[in-house]
């Protein structure tokens, strides 16, 4: 169906997608900004085209330039990776209009999930458990709003329909603060997302962040590929992820997983997707669906033995899944550390040239990275320079392997968060499993992990 793929991204994910393409015998076309002329994703591609200046808005987010690059190189498909244009419905539409395959779900699916109210409505209708609260935008009448909030019970959280990933939210502890919080969030939403719609739901004080990976072909075959726990985060940036989510009964996971599969079938979802849940007191509450390949996909690959990027491309190519739910088994445990070029004390990016790059290795150790000795970390883009992924037969095995791998990994010339990871994997609560989404920030506030 297609023989060549333009990869509309940079960094480690561009390399990850290139490898999957080459494994399938597909030709790869890289695009790059002026800052990435010498980048490995450019060097290793079959063909490469410069699409603009360093600023992402003028290059990796420049839809016209990318579509043009695809046309002049004769690309037959476009893979958006994660970030940048990966969840832009308009871009998916433009790729299709230009006669190319967008490697991802339909523009309609992306659009529904981009509107967090529409997403919640669709998922609740499909039987996915959601956070208590109406799956509709708030009415204008203050007394109606007050009644809706009372029905949920305080504390509640106000969220922008156009938000997501932690942007455009506000917690309301009591009724006196409700209308004020609402108007501020609405105004922010109007400015940031061009959509003033907000909705409210029960605020969960100490949840975990658990997600379910799904994969669907065009023929109604949809599978869930296990769970991931991404609770260790700081300011909505995930720091360390694992699969499976520890301490959740298998029967409960299977119940939620099959609900996700049913929901995908109902909306005709195609490709890879992730259902994000908050988990509190043993209950799952859907919050958002991601319609892209995710940074943390390797922990799912290590536990299921499935190359999810290759599968994503195969189903986009119109192939049928060659395995069924009964073939999916979670074997062992995997962790992923996001290694960032940043000053851990102040958490600010630390661009510069890497002078030393010693990677860990051995059985069950994987590093996905575009960096190396001599690589210059650009101030223009995300500060993630590597993902260190380990697998083991049990969570304890994997954690032991991770400690050694983190000690082996040595990066000099720039500041990194490696020291934070080394302390994190020795944190007693983390070792015990199932910490909540506030754990890392709490420990940092207490001056632990420093
Ligand atoms: C919540 C919540 C508590 N209660 N919703 C933040 C990111 C966005 N995806 C949803 N978020 C949250 N929604 C209710 N009803 C707490 C968060 C939240 C959070 C969620 C996942 C991972 C990290 C987080 C950090 C702070 C708050």
What does this structure look like?
The protein is α+β, with helices and mostly antiparallel strands. The chain has three domains: 4-103, 3-Layer(aba) Sandwich (Rossmann fold); 132-202, ATP-grasp fold, A domain (Dna Ligase, domain 1); 208-445, D-amino Acid Aminotransferase, Chain A, domain 1. The protein has helices at 11-23, 40-43, 63-73, 89-97, 107-114, 116-125, 142-152, 178-193, 250-267, 297-304, 308-316, 395-408, 418-424, 428-432, 439-445; strands at residues 4-7, 27-33, 47-52, 77-79, 101-102, 156-164, 167-172, 198-202, 208-216, 222-234, 237-243, 271-280, 283-290, 333-340, 342-343, 348-349, 352-353, 356-358, 365-369, 376-377, 384-392, 410-412. Strand 12 and strand 13 form a beta hairpin. It is globular and about 60 Å long. The mean pLDDT is 97. The structure holds ligand MV4.
Topology:
Elements: E1 4-7, H1 11-23, E2 27-33, H2 40-43, E3 47-52, H3 63-73, E4 77-79, H4 89-97, E5 101-102, H5 107-114, H6 116-125, H7 142-152, E6 156-164, E7 167-172, H8 178-193, E8 198-202, E9 208-216, E10 222-234, E11 237-243, H9 250-267, E12 271-280, E13 283-290, H10 297-304, H11 308-316, E14 333-340, E15 342-343, E16 348-349, E17 352-353, E18 356-358, E19 365-369, E20 376-377, E21 384-392, H12 395-408, E22 410-412, H13 418-424, H14 428-432, H15 439-445
Parallel strand pairs: 1-2, 1-4, 2-3, 4-5
Antiparallel strand pairs: 6-7, 6-8, 9-10, 9-12, 10-11, 11-14, 12-13, 14-21, 15-16, 17-20, 18-22, 19-21
Helix pairs in contact: 4-5
The structure holds ligand MV4.
Residues 131, 157, 164-166, 201-204, 207, 209, 233, 236, 278, 287-288, 437 line the site of ligand MV4.
